[in-house]
Amino acid sequence: MLLMPLRSWPSLFRRTRIRVGGWLRAQGHYRITREIGSGGMAKVYLAEKLGYGGFSKLFAVKVIKTDAVRDPVVRDMFVNEARLTANLIHTNIVQVASLQRFRDEYVIIMEYVFGKTLLEFIQRHKELGRPVPLDLGAYIIGRVCRGLDYAHNKHDRHGKPVRIVHRDICPSNILISYRGVPKLSDFGVAKSLFWKTPSEKSMVVGKYPYMAPEQVRRQGTDARSDIYALSLVMYELFTGQIAYDVENTAMLREQLDAQRLRPPVELSPDLPQGINDIIVRGAATDPNDRFQSAKEMSLELEAFLLRHWLFPTEEKLAEYMVELFPEAKNHRWW
Hints:
The chain has 334 residues and is α+β, with helices and mostly antiparallel strands. It is built from 11 helices and 9 strands.
């Protein structure tokens, strides 16, 4: 069947329902194949970019939802996400290729990762009734720490610190490629020193179960808030349970005020004390009691692995992904 590019974007983006099999014209032709994700303010589609001589490459296309596109705050955050992440060039961060606009439509074109979210990774272990391997779990979190530390310490082209805070670390925003590479994604609610974002005293952003105490109490966030959230992700990875299973800020504040975090070793008795201590320290209520940088947390994880003669690798994680998800065998070399 002969496919021809559409003459304009509006028919593709009407109510942000991109037509499967349709075309997006943005610095080249992208054929939209299917929807692959949906979040609070945007949808993500898989698109194939075609070019001269049979050139073909897959990308993910992120579009603001219809009910949010007229909100100037949402538009600013969407544009800021693309501008913020455009120069985050790191193996453990999903890459952004470009930002496009046509009339009232905004589109981010970014790297497509063949793989699964960490949430799917955790759920698969629950389905199989098996724990996450200690070495691979620590490896995944350690690599996310590397990407996070890079983002936290990013400087602009003039040498000034950007001071990025992700503010939405959660299992669904961490991807694991079939090649065994963990990647941090979705900087949609991130803040930085140079981009205009809503005041944290007036707006709380992020996923409720992973919000740091200072975040939910509207006291402001910094890099340590991301470390807190990642520690709760690590808690869930090794215990299979969400540390704070809440649906709103009121529930979270009530739980934070009423109890301390239940040590993960109580839920998973076979969990080594060293891993338990890393999680508990990272999830400390007081930011001053946490790891003060993602690099510090990463080094603690690496030291633990060395002490226990565990040597996880990208290749080992890739093989394990095939074991968990048989379909990975056909995609791991993309």
